[in-house]
Each structure stands twice: as structure tokens, then as C-alpha cells.
Specification:
single chain; 867 residues; alpha+beta; Multidrug efflux transporter AcrB transmembrane fold; 4 domains; four-stranded antiparallel β-sheet; 29 helices
Length: 867
């Protein structure tokens, strides 16, 4: 490999313009590919096979309407007064205007929705009040009816008795009249008796009328009894319906679209397609159209779903990082021309890898963080790799080697180390695919491509540019010393190269102090929680943050992360059975901890899938919401036995929780894989057993300390003002894995550049302690400069506008800081000093079977210098 790189370096030096032009054309092609084929970046993360994604996939096929995307618009009164009728009308007109957009399905008016909710709640309340008083009213009516029956019965009995008595009297009169007529009684007597008979007949007629009236009244009483009986039956029937409605209203009691103080409203925009299929320009049109309405005294803010966009590369923080890196390079190299070369080379590499990645976004589903990770790594590593070759070339020029020969030799020695170091990082990043997390594996692959391009740029473009620069890579003072034997010797072998450094002079103190710092920094990791960012992590000035906080204050934090719960049954229900089912499920869910409200949202066409919107008490990134997701899933056993229904949970908050759990579960496996890989590589390079062990242990300390520091800043909120952490939350779920992979690669780089010099000195006869000091003096300046550059570049991304990039930038910056300055320059040298010759021990049988990996190209250098 060293000989091949030597020839490649010589070719690049001789055909400098061909190489430079080739790379410029590659950059132009990458830009053209992005312009013509670039797609959109995803603003959300999904993971096939997780419980939430399984529910989503099922809904897409069986309940398409449920998979449509939504976005929230928060409207807030700025004058502290209620929404006026005029303001409500203007808002209604603005919201209705969105329906003219082809991709908008429906817009929920918060005022009409709240009025409907209030009306339904009042109907239930009134119905319950009427139902509560109805039994007493019916009982009073029954009592009155019973009394009427009793009175009628008494009256009938009285009339019947009178009728019977009159009938007897009438018979007696009739017999008396007949006898008198038979006895020829005087006519006046007979007439008097007949007058009495007429009166009796008249009395009997009146009694008959009374009996008829009593019969009519009895019929009326029977009708009244039927009404009372029907009322009692209706009470029983309506009581069940009202009880169902009351249960649903109770579950929805905290659900509102207009705040209690009536100064904040929440409108929902529903799309015709899933949110991932909605283009950035389409979401921007919604924001623009509502913003242009400009309703006086009404503040309009938009949720993340409507405002996430492609990240901007090259913000102020990133540029500041590059400027600081350039300053470090200038201080180290002493010339602006040489200092600009690594930065320029890195920018060319980043441009190619970033544009190429974005060009693939039309065929690959990638998140906005994916290209940013490639940019971050490409910049930092690209600068360092070019610096390593440039620094070796400068050192060789000072020893009197000709320019082109020096370029070729630098490419064959330091370039060989760069290739090996880059390969190490690439392997670590590609290994992210072992986690089984698609988007994370893609991030690793894109990062690996960025590293690969950076390596190719370093071993071809850098030699070509160096060739054109000639001796100008040295400053005037350095060029003036050329030909001076003493200066050449100093350039080849640093002065006092074996003089003990602080770590080797005070090994026990160095070990105790460095380990103490790392262990203390690692302490917060015990409380580390994994999650994904929500609106509260956005910049305070952003509309996403304002929307999140306004909604949380008005309706509770949980409204920003509702959980979609799907209840599935196998049988078809009647209308009333459906209502009963919804009420039972909603009531049961409400009994869980941390539930604010449960809203029955929809029923599928086949009537077998019921959607519920569960609003947690706390926000989507809270620990209580995470527990609630698992509690909802644990309800399946109970709902299956009681109602024959299974429960599934999805939604953005649930998906984030599932992704975080998956990544957390994969983290130990990935860390173990990386540790085994580090042991193998270090044994291969240094032909030692103990050095790989202590180097890997140092890497492990670095990882724990880095994650601990990230937890303290992003989860605990320490130094929050510095990093704009105004609402601390869980660590982004994929950050630990990314940090492990990248820091591993960089740690191996530093160990390689420092340790190879130590090994070379030890093999050539220096004592174990002198070899450690020699390696440090030889490589420390470039390692320190490289580490500072990485810290500044990564640190710049710690202030990125993209919240998903910030913790990655911070973690990588802190990881390099810990690993380079504490582990590689203090802890490892101190341990190697105490170990002495044992540090380089290796079983003879293993030494024989391992291939000889000449990473620094020592054989090539020896051959070239003695030719």
C-alpha cells in the first residue's frame, strides 16, 4: 500500500492540473446531479417492525384516512382580551382559504369545534338532569293516577248502590200502581204514584250518565298508566344512552380547541396524504397564506409538522468553527498559503459528498440529519487528513528532500496512515448498519462516503496542490534555514526527543487525575434517557417553539404529542354497541396514569377499527408519556378478555419512543462490536497485547465521559445558556451510537499517529520509556493541532440551527477533547511508562501469524532515504 501511495503521490505532483481539474469536474457533476435529481429530506424518523410502525402500516391499508398527515396552527390573543366576533370571522375566512390548496383535505375551525363540544356537553348535562328528575315526576303522576282510580272506583260503587236502590223503589211503585189500578183507586192517587215513578226513572238516567262518565275517566286513567309505563321504560333505555354519552364526555373533559380563558385557539390542518409525502413548498404555502392574513391582535404560530425544512449548511457557528480551524493551522504552519490548503481540500471533499448525498435523496428516504453528519465529518476529517500529509511534507522539505520526492514520500508514509485511519472510521460507520436501524445505518453509510472522499482528496488533490505551491508551503524563516545541517537534523529528529513529558514523569498523578476527570464527567450517564426532540427544543425565537409553548400553556403539554390508539375487533357492532364500545375503552384508558383526555376520533368503514386520540398530561418527550405508551399496550390482554379487542399505539411520540428503545437495546451490541474491532486493529498495528487493552479501555472511558457530559448539558440543562438549551430533555436516541462510532475512529487515528512513532523508536532500540517520549514529541504537535481543529469544527455544529445536529456536534467535540488531550496524551503514555517493556509483549506464536502492517510506511521511508 505504501509503494502504491508513493506512486500515486508522485503522479499527482507531476500531473497536478489533471488531478485538480478532475476533482473540480467531479464536484460540478455532483452539483449537477443534486440540481437535477435531488429530492426532499424527511422531517421524521420511522423504523420498520416497531410496534408503532406496524400500526401505521396496517392503518395505511385498512384505514387510509387515518394515515393522513396533520399540522397544528396556534392562534393567540396578544391584547389579553377574548376573541371578538370579527376576529373569529377573519380567522374562519383564513382557515377556509386553505381548502383551496389541492393538498389540503380539511381544516378544523377551533371556535366551531369548541362550540360543538360545549353544546354536546350541555345536552348530556341537561339530559342527565331531566333523567334524574323524571322518576320523581312519574312517581307523583302514578300516585295521582292511583288516587283517581280509587276515587272513580268509589264513585262507581256509590252509583251502582243508588241504581240498585232506585230499581227496587221503581219495582215497588210499579207494583203499587198496578194494584191501585186493579182496585179502581182514585185517579189522583194513581197520578201521584206515577209522578213518583217518573222521578225515579229520571234518577236512574242520571245514574247511567254518571256510570258512563266514570267508564270514560277509567279509560283516560288507563291511558295515563300506559304513558307512565312507557316513561319508565324510556328512562331505562335513555339512561343507558346517556350513561354512554356521559362516559365519553368525561373522557373528553380536558379536551379543548379554545382555552379556558378563551385567548388561545388550536386549529388543525388535515392533508390528503401522509405527512412524509407533503413537499416542503406545500407546507410553506400554508404558513405563508395564514401569515399574510395579518389579523390584528392575533398571533399565529405553526407546529413542527408545518415548518420543518431542509437544514442550511454554512451557518454562522459552522463558519466560525472553520475560521478558528484556519487560525490554528496558520499558527502551526506559519503561512497563510499552507494553512488554507487543508481547509480548501476539505471543502472540495465536503461539496462532492454532500451534493452526491442530496442527489440520492430522491431515491433514498433520508432524514435532514443524514447529509449534515457527512458534512460535519467530512470537514473535520478532511482538514486533519490533509494536514497530516502536509505536515510530513513540510518536515521532509526541512531535511533537504526535493519537493516532488517529498510529496511522494509523504503520501506513501503519512498518506498510508491516513488511508488506514480513514478505513478505521469507515468500518466503524458502516458497522452502524449492525444496529438494524435503517436511518441510522444510512447515516453511517453517508458518513463513511464522506470519510472515503476525504481520504481520496487527501492522497490525490492535496499532493497536486502542494506540488503547485512548491517551497511556499514553508514560511520565509523556514526557507532561510534550508541547507543548514543542524536545522535539518532538528527537523528529522525533534530536539530532546526522549525528554520525559509530564505524563511520563508523573505517571501515577497523571493516571489518577485523568481517570478522575473522566469518571466524574461520566456520572450523569446513570440518568441518561433516550428520545427524540420535540418543539420545546427548537430555538426560542422559532415559530415551532412558540407554538409548542402556547399550546402547552393553554391546553397542557400533552396536546403537543397526542398518542393515537387503535382498538381492533373481529365482529360488526350496531350503532349503540359502537358507542358503548368507545365509551368502555375511553373510560378504561382514562384510568391510566398521566392521561389528560381520550377522544374517540374515528371508526373505519368496516366498523372494526376504532381510533382514539389519547392526550397525555406531559409532553411527548417526558418520562411519564413513555410509561403511558407501554401502559396502553399492556391493556391489550384486558381489552381482549373483556371486549374482544386488541390495542395498538402509534403517533409521533410513540414512534419516537419505539425508535429510542430499539437504539438503546442495540447500543451494547454496537459498543461491544466496536471494542472488539479496536482490539483487533491495535493488536495488528502495534503487535502488542496490553497496549490495545489499555487503548480500548481509554476509548471506553472517553465514551462514558462524553455521554455523561452530553447528558449534563442537554438533559440536565447545565450550561444551557451557552448552548441554547432552554428546555432540557432526553438525549437524542441515535446520538450515543453515532458518538461511539465516530469517536472510536478518531481515537484510533490519534492512537495510530502517536503509537506508531513509539513503536518505531522501541523497535530501533530505545527503552520503553524513551520510546513513549519520542513518539509524543514526534507526533504531539500535529495531533494537538488536528484535535483542536476537530473540536472547533464539531463545536461549530453544536450551535447549529438544526436541533438534531447540535448534540452530535457537541458530543463529537467533547469526545475528541477528552480522548486526544486526556486519554491519548496523558493516560495512555502514563500507563505505558508504568508497564515498561511489558507494554510491547506479544506471544511469539501470535506474532508469527499476524501480517506485518507498516502503517507509517517505515520500510518505504528507509528505502527512499537510503536510495
Amino acid at each position: 500500500m505504501a509503494n502504491l501511495l508513493y506512486k500515486l503521490g508522485l503522479f499527482s505532483a507531476r500531473r497536478a492540473w489533471v488531478v485538480i481539474t478532475t476533482w473540480i469536474l467531479i464536484l460540478a457533476a455532483a452539483i449537477a446531479a443534486f440540481v437535477n435529481f435531488g429530492g426532499t429530506l424527511s422531517t421524521s424518523m420511522s423504523l420498520p417492525g416497531t410496534p408503532s410502525q406496524v400500526v401505521i402500516d396496517d392503518l395505511k391499508s385498512s384505514f387510509p384516512a387515518a394515515s393522513r398527515g396533520t399540522g397544528q396552527v396556534v392562534l393567540h390573543k396578544t391584547d389579553g382580551k377574548l376573541f371578538t366576533t370579527s376576529e373569529q370571522e377573519q380567522i374562519d375566512a383564513a382557515l377556509n382559504g386553505l381548502k383551496s390548496l389541492a393538498w389540503v383535505s380539511e381544516v378544523q375551525n377551533p371556535f366551531k369545534t369548541q362550540a360543538s363540544l360545549d353544546e354536546n356537553r350541555q345536552k348530556v348535562t341537561d339530559g342527565q338532569a331531566k333523567l334524574a328528575s323524571a322518576p320523581a315526576d312519574l312517581a307523583a303522576a302514578q300516585k295521582k293516577l292511583n288516587l283517581g282510580k280509587k276515587q272513580l272506583a268509589a264513585a262507581k260503587a256509590s252509583l251502582d248502590a243508588q241504581d240498585a236502590a232506585l230499581a227496587v223503589q221503581a219495582k215497588q211503585l210499579e207494583d203499587a200502581i198496578a194494584q191501585m189500578q186493579a182496585n179502581n183507586a182514585p185517579q189522583d192517587q194513581i197520578s201521584a204514584m206515577m209522578a213518583n215513578q217518573s222521578q225515579l226513572l229520571a234518577g236512574q238516567a242520571q245514574i247511567a250518565d254518571g256510570q258512563t262518565q266514570i267508564a270514560k275517566n277509567m279509560v283516560e286513567l288507563q291511558a295515563g298508566q300506559a304513558k307512565i309505563d312507557a316513561g319508565l321504560a324510556s328512562i331505562s333505555k335513555n339512561a343507558a344512552k346517556l350513561d354512554t354519552a356521559a362516559q365519553i364526555m368525561t373522557a373528553m373533559k380536558n379536551f379543548r380547541t379554545l382555552s379556558n380563558d378563551k385567548q388561545t385557539a388550536s386549529a388543525i390542518v388535515m392533508f390528503k396524504k401522509p405527512l412524509g409525502d407533503i413537499e416542503e413548498s406545500q407546507k410553506a404555502a400554508i404558513v405563508s397564506q395564514l401569515s399574510q392574513a395579518k389579523i390584528a391582535n392575533v398571533q399565529v404560530e405553526f407546529s413542527q409538522e408545518l415548518t420543518k425544512s431542509m437544514p442550511k449548511i454554512g451557518g454562522p457557528a459552522e463558519i466560525a468553527g472553520l475560521v478558528i480551524a484556519a487560525i490554528v493551522l496558520f499558527v502551526m504552519l506559519g503561512t497563510l498559503l499552507a494553512a488554507g490548503l487543508p481547509v480548501f481540500s476539505a471543502l472540495i471533499g465536503v461539496g462532492i459528498s454532500a451534493m452526491g448525498t442530496l442527489a440520492l435523496s430522491s431515491v433514498l428516504d433520508m432524514t435532514a440529519t443524514t447529509p449534515m453528519l457527512g458534512v460535519m465529518l467530512g470537514l473535520a476529517v478532511g482538514i486533519d487528513y490533509s494536514l497530516f500529509i502536509l505536515n510530513r511534507h513540510r518536515r521532509q522539505l526541512k531535511t533537504g528532500i526535493a519537493v516532488r520526492e517529498s510529496i511522494a514520500l509523504a503520501n506513501g508514509t503519512s498518506g498510508n496512515a491516513v488511508v488506514f485511519a480513514g478505513l478505521t472510521v469507515v468500518i466503524a460507520l458502516i458497522a452502524l448498519n449492525l444496529t438494524g436501524v435503517g436511518f441510522l445505518g444510512l447515516m453511517g453509510s453517508v458518513g463513511a462516503v464522506a470519510i472515503g472522499v476525504a481520504v481520496l482528496i487527501a492522497i490525490t488533490f492535496t499532493p497536486a496542490i502542494i506540488s503547485l505551491m512548491g517551497m511556499r508551503v514553508l514560511n520565509k524563516r523556514e526557507r532561510a534555514k534550508l541547507g543548514n545541517a543542524e536545522a535539518e537534523n532538528e527537523a528529522e529528529t525533534p530536539k530532546n526527543a526522549t525528554r520525559p513529558v509530564w505524563a511520563t514523569k508523573n505517571p501515577w498523578v497523571a493516571i489518577v487525575l485523568s481517570v478522575a476527570v473522566l469518571v466524574i464527567a461520566a456520572q450523569p450517564i446513570a440518568s441518561m434517557r433516550l428520545g427524540l426532540p420535540d418543539g420545546s427544543s427548537e430555538p426560542v425565537s422559532s415559530t415551532q417553539y412558540k407554538s409548542f409553548t402556547l399550546a402547552a400553556k393553554a391546553f397542557g403539554a400533552g396536546v403537543n404529542g397526542p398518542l393515537v390508539t387503535v382498538a381492533t375487533i373481529d365482529k360488526t357492532l350496531t350503532s349503540q354497541e359502537k358507542l358503548d364500545f368507545e365509551a368502555n375503552i375511553a373510560t378504561r384508558i382514562m384510568k391510566l396514569d398521566s392521561v389528560s383526555s381520550v377522544v374517540p376520533a374515528a371508526v373505519s368503514k368496516d366498523g372494526k377499527k376504532f381510533l382514539f386520540e389519547v392526550i397525555p398530561v406531559e409532553g411527548p418527550a417526558s418520562a411519564s408519556t413513555e410509561k403511558l405508551v407501554f401502559a396502553l399496550r399492556d391493556l391489550t390482554a384486558e381489552t381482549q378478555s373483556k371486549y374482544g379487542a386488541t390495542l395498538g399505539v402509534t403517533g409521533a411520540a410513540a414512534a419516537n419512543i419505539d425508535i429510542s428503545k430499539k437504539l438503546g437495546d442495540a447500543l451494547p451490541l454496537y459498543l461491544g462490536t466496536v471494542l472488539i474491532l479496536s482490539l483487533f486493529l491495535l493488536i495488528l498495528v502495534f503487535r502488542s497485547i496490553l497496549i490495545p487493552l489499555i487503548a480500548s479501555a481509554g476509548f471506553l472511558l472517553t465514551v462514558f465521559a462524553t455521554l455523561g457530559a452530553a447528558t449534563a448539558v442537554f438533559q440536565w440543562g447545565w450550561m444551557g445558556q451557552v448552548f441554547d438549551i432552554h428546555d432540557p430533555g432526553p438525549i437524542m436516541s441515535f446520538v450515543p451510537t453515532i458518538i461511539i462510532g465516530v469517536v472510536f475512529g478518531l481515537a484510533m487515528d490519534y492512537q495510530l499517529f502517536l503509537g506508531s512513532g513509539m513503536r518505531e523508536a522501541y523497535v530501533h532500540g530505545k527503552s520503553a520509556k524513551d520510546a513513549v517520549n519520542f513518539g509524543i514529541h514526534l507526533s504531539r504537535p500535529v495531533v494537538i493541532a488536528a484535535a483542536i481543529i476537530m473540536v472547533t469544527v464539531f463545536g461549530g455544529f453544536a450551535f447549529s440551527e438544526l436541533t438534531t445536529v447540535r448534540p452530535i456536534g457537541f458530543g463529537l467535540a467533547v469526545g475528541v477533547l477528552f480522548d486526544a488531550f486526556l486519554v491519548r496524551l496523558v493516560l495512555i503514555p502514563a500507563l505505558m511508562t508504568l508497564l515498561g517493556n511489558a507494554a510491547w509483549w506479544m506471544p511469539k506464536w501470535l506474532d508469527r501469524i499476524l501480517p506485518d502492517v507498516d502503517v507509517e510506511g517505515a520500510a518505504l521511508e528507509h528505502k527512499a532515504l537510503n536510495a
